[in-house]
């Protein structure tokens, strides 16, 4: 499949394991070698006797996983669209693997998605089925197209009581699990003939109107829980290629055991699942958080070798005194989902080196299935702030964008004539011609500091998604990216070939690993009567709220509140709407937003404290 | 400010709740704001208020308003 092996066999080189090896010299990007991965199929190729997953009920082998998965998925017509509500539970994994094996198109959403968001997505995408992977019996629902939504297939449910009884009559966790899952599967099969008949009719009806593109396999959201309708369209090749690269650069083996710390439906969380499925490794499934005792006892009992975390995960781990924890089974940990502060990166690099744990900083986007780059662990402390090098099979290019102040020049067309027009570019331009970043306060200083060498980071690889979708009709589209992704991030590359992100072209922030589009926040507030400007840095959204109008709208909602409570109410409102903790939002009330003659908000002026706009501030 | 006031304030500030919400009913994940992010805020607020460093086990065990009072005794904080 891939790649340069300038150093040769990976087992012989200290490169991917160097935190355990004392001596190393300076390494340039071109010296990094990767292990070649045999082209196995991610959803079919694992040895039957390897343990596929463990959850609180016990373990299952890949043979068992595939059997449960196929029995479950038999009820679904290939190429139908299933909305899978995902949690870090065996039910979700079984459903996901089954649907992928059956060539069903899966739209993945978090099981705790707000009902209103769910309703609007169902309306936009008209899935044929809804599968609740958060449910002990993997309940399925068939979309009844003619009326108002999903009807639960009455016979799909298992008898929860009898499952509970089975659990009480055996102490063998493995057997219990098998019984519980088999029951669900049997129940599913009982109605499958009926369900298939109905569903086939409905699917046939729909496919007349919209033929789902034959390469489409998976739809992932870019925004976590913030409710955007925009999904990334991924092919099986995308999923397979990215998983292969990840297995290669992390040297994942069948002995690895990854414990879940991120949502199943989140592209980074899913990439951990996919890469470990490909490696025939074990996935330790738990919904417990880092602050649950259950998490750590499950971790230790099953000797987890790895987990992933967003910057906030690492902040939590620090508070939990990670440095003092005894976790001898841990082999490597990864970080992505936003930029880790340099202090934390250095701290983890040092602590992990002492403990013999590889700490790998990575960079990615859902638009590239998940991952685009990684920093080899032996460089974690040396290349602080760097996202490393492109993953195996991928490559970067920096588009030194002289057009920042002269949009007439179209670098996208010049450098990549094969790049087709982006269907959603009207709502969120992804082309390199958007000349706005110089005026944005959050990124302006970084972009200046990065001098003339900075430019938009462009990624090329087989993991680049097919494009976006906003509704069912878009699912018939083919590949509109052609392996090229304009990341929207501004980067520089150092003399050794390592990349560093110094700014962002698009107006979004990463908050607790979720992408939050600032323009969408502003429009959400405006729809609810608040005139506001959204800005800030990762994990900290600043909302500048114009108080004159906004107090009117609060009165309208029967709250007569002083300024401070207005701000607090807005924080709570945003927290409710986005599903993010209110701590992410800092609301600053001001008399009037600074605007230019055209009425455009002048973000740079907002950040200027000397203007003394601030009337009140809460956080 | 008494220790109890400081303790209560940490909860009130971290979760945007009122004094009336405090009590034995208040446990981890019983309210929206006491999720893992909120837990971090709470622990930071309590460590600041009493100038202590909680152990890993105590941070994890700090799963209710009532249990927290007991845990703080170990750090010579009497409420």
Task: Throw out a few tags for this protein.
heterodimer; A: 619 residues; alpha/beta; Rossmann fold; 4 domains; 9-stranded mixed β-sheet; disordered N terminus; B: mainly alpha; Non-ribosomal Peptide Synthetase Peptidyl Carrier Protein, Chain A; 4 helices; 54% helix
Label the CATH architecture of chain B.
Orthogonal Bundle
Look at the helices and sheets of chain A and give the structural class. alpha/beta
| Sequence of secondary-structure elements of chain B | HHHH
The stretches of 5 or more residues of chain A where confidence is low (pLDDT under 50) are 1-24, 144-149, 152-192, 403-452, 557-561, 610-619
What would you say about this model in short?
Chain A is of the alpha/beta class. Chain A has 4 domains: 51-209, 3-Layer(aba) Sandwich (Rossmann fold); 236-392, 3-Layer(aba) Sandwich (Rossmann fold); 396-419 and 430-461 and 480-509, no CATH class; 511-618, 2-Layer Sandwich (GMP Synthetase, Chain A, domain 3), CATH 3.30.300.
Plain-language structure description:
The complex is a heterodimer of chains A (619) and B (79). Chain A folds into four domains: 51-209, Rossmann fold (3-Layer(aba) Sandwich); 236-392, ANL, N-terminal domain (Rossmann fold, 3-Layer(aba) Sandwich); 396-419 and 430-461 and 480-509, no CATH class; 511-618, ANL, C-terminal domain (GMP Synthetase, Chain A, domain 3, 2-Layer Sandwich). Residues 1-24, 144-149, 152-192, 403-452, 557-561 and 610-619 of chain A have low confidence and may be disordered. In chain A, strands 12-13-14-15-16-21-20-18-17 form a nine-stranded mixed β-sheet, sandwiched between helices. Chain A has an eight-stranded mixed β-sheet with strand order 7-6-5-3-4-8-9-19. In chain A, strands 2-1-11-10 form a four-stranded mixed β-sheet, sandwiched between helices. In chain A, a hairpin with a 6-residue loop joins strand 14 and strand 15. Chain A is globular and about 65 Å long. Chain A is built from 16 helices and 27 strands. Chain A is of the alpha/beta class and 619 residues long. The longest helix of chain A is centred in the N-terminal third of the chain and has 37 residues, at 173-209. Chain B has 79 residues and is mainly alpha-helical. Chain B is 54% helix and 0% strand. Chain B has helices spanning 3-15, 36-50, 56-61, 65-73. The termini of chain B are close together. Chain B has one domain: Non-ribosomal Peptide Synthetase Peptidyl Carrier Protein, Chain A. Classes of the chains: A alpha/beta (619), B mainly alpha (79).
